[in-house]
């Protein structure tokens, strides 16, 4: 599972290296960014309750995404809401780490990896 996490971080970093657009311009990929934010929130919660000892790693990845994208008010609010939706949604479902939580972690890492690859393939220079 560590290799998958490293791959997600590398792909997110590659995506973040692309030049930022003007703040007010809506991006074609905003839906993907919001979903990626939700996945980061989910991973922040689930990896924490499963004892992965990553601290604020996923929150920091979210902050890096916001810093790289430099979204204006409404876009930023939607990204933050996505992160919080992912976190709160799984906080309401899982109080402790279970085998199902590990499955959810794996599935979210896979989806985040796919989104990161797709965004990088379509929009990176």
Overall SS class? mainly alpha
Number of strands: 0
Largest sheet: none
Strand content: under 5%
Share of helix, binned? over 70%
Apparent shape: globular
Count of separate DSSP helical elements? 5
Spell out the helices and strands N to C: HHHHH
Distance between the termini: 29 Å
Rounded mean pLDDT is 84
Radius of gyration: 14 Å
Q: Low-confidence segments, ≥5 residues, pLDDT <50?
A: 5-11, 14-23
How are the SSEs ordered, and which strands pair?
Blueprint: H1 2-16, H2 30-49, H3 57-69, H4 73-93, H5 99-123
Q: How would you describe this structure in keywords?
A:
5 helices, 125 residues, mainly alpha, globular
What can you see in these coordinates?
The structure is a single chain. The chain has 5 helices and no strands. It is an all-alpha fold and 125 residues long. Helix 2 runs parallel beside helix 4 and helix 2 packs antiparallel against helix 5. It starts with a helix and ends with a helix. About 14% of the residues have low confidence.
Brief rundown of the structure:
The protein is built from five helices and no strands.
């Amino acid at each position: 599972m560590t290799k998958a996490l490293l791959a997600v971080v590398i792909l997110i970093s590659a995506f973040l290296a692309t030049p930022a657009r003007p703040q007010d311009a809506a991006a074609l990929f905003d839906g993907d960014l919001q979903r990626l934010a939700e996945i980061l929130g989910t991973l922040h919660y689930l990896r924490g309750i499963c004892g992965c000892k990553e601290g604020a790693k996923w929150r920091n990845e979210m902050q890096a995404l916001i810093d790289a994208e430099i979204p204006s008010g409404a876009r930023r609010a939607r990204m933050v809401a996505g992160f919080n939706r992912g976190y709160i949604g799984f906080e309401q479902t899982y109080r402790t780490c279970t085998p199902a939580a590990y499955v959810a972690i794996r599935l979210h890492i896979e989806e985040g990896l796919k989104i990161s690859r797709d965004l990088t393939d379509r929009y990176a220079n």
